[in-house]
Amino acid sequence: MKIGITGATGFVGGALAAELAAEGHEIVGVVRPSTPKKLGRGLTRINADLVSWREGDVADPASLRGIFAGVEWLIHAAGMLGEAGVPEAAYFNLHKNGTENVLAEAQRAGVERVLYISSPGVLGPIMGAPADETAPLAPSNPYERSKAAAEQVAQNYAEAGLPVVIARPEFIYGPGDVHVLGLFKAVRDGRFFYIGSGSYTCHPTYVEDAVAGMLLALKQGLPGEIYHITGPNPVMFRELAETIAAGLAVPPPRFTIPRPAAWLGAAVFELMGKLFGIRPPLSRTGAAFFSENRRFSWQKAHQSLGYSPEFDLERGVAATIKWYRENGLL
Description:
The chain is of the alpha/beta class. It has helices spanning 11-22, 88-109, 142-159, 181-188, 207-220, 237-248, 259-276, 284-289, 299-305, 313-326; strands at 2-6, 26-31, 51-55, 73-76, 113-117, 164-169, 172-173, 194-195, 201-202, 205-206, 226-229, 235-236, 256-257.
C-alpha cells in the first residue's frame, strides 16, 4: 500500500514511516524544499526503495496540489512543539491552516483513509481522574489552542465524508527523540529541580508504544473518532526524575522551588532570551508543564483497537539512555 506521511522527517512521523516501511508499505514523505529528505534521526537502516519524497509545504496550499496522487492512506503528522518565543499565529498557521490544506488536498486526491496526529494537550490541565476522549477541550497555551482548532478542522472533514481518524499520543520519548534530551542532561548535571513538591503528574509514552497505538488507529479506528495513545500510567515528576537519575547512576534531584517563583523566573528567562537571542532554559510554558497535572485514559484504544502499552517507565528510560549514549548525545 502507498501511504503518505507529512512530518516524516520528524521524530514521530519518521518512526511511523519506519514501522510502515518495515511492514512492506511504500512511503511517500512530504517535505519542504529546504528540509533534508531523510527520515527522523536514527532511522538510516530503512530500505530506501520503499521511501520516496515529494516537496510541499503544508502551510502553502498551492504547493500541495497533486502531491497525494496515488496515495491510498495518509498520516498527517507535521507539527511544531511548544516553545518560547513562537507567536501564536505561527502555531495556528501550521496546525489549523496546515491541517485544512492537507485534508482539502487529500479529499481532492481521493485518499481512502487519513490519520491526524493530535495531542491530549487539547484538554489542558487535568483535575481528578485520568481524562478520556469525552472530556471537553480546554487548551491552556498557544500550542494546545492551535491543536484544538486543528482537531475541529479534522472533525469537520470527517463529518463531510473524508474518513479521518484522530489519535492523541502523549509525551512521546525514546530512541530518536532529542526534545527531552535536555531533561536527561539536567538530571545528569544536577540542574533539574522540582516545582512545588514534584507531585504533579505527566504521562510519558515510549515511542514503540506510541507507534503501535497510532498504527492501530490508522488501520482500525472509526472515522471521526478520537483515541488516546499513552503510556501505561501517569507518573509524578519526582518519579520521572528519580527514574532517569537511577538509569544514569547519578544522585536524584533534591531541590524544589515554589510555583510562583518558577513562573517569575521563567518570565525573566524569556525576556533575556528575547534580548540576547538565546533559548531560555525555562519558559512559562515549560514551568506550566512541570507544575500541572496531565493524565489520560487509554481504555478506549484498548477496548476498540486492542492497544496495550508494554513499556513501563523504567524500561523506556533505560532504552532511551542507551540510545543517547550510543549516539554521543549524553
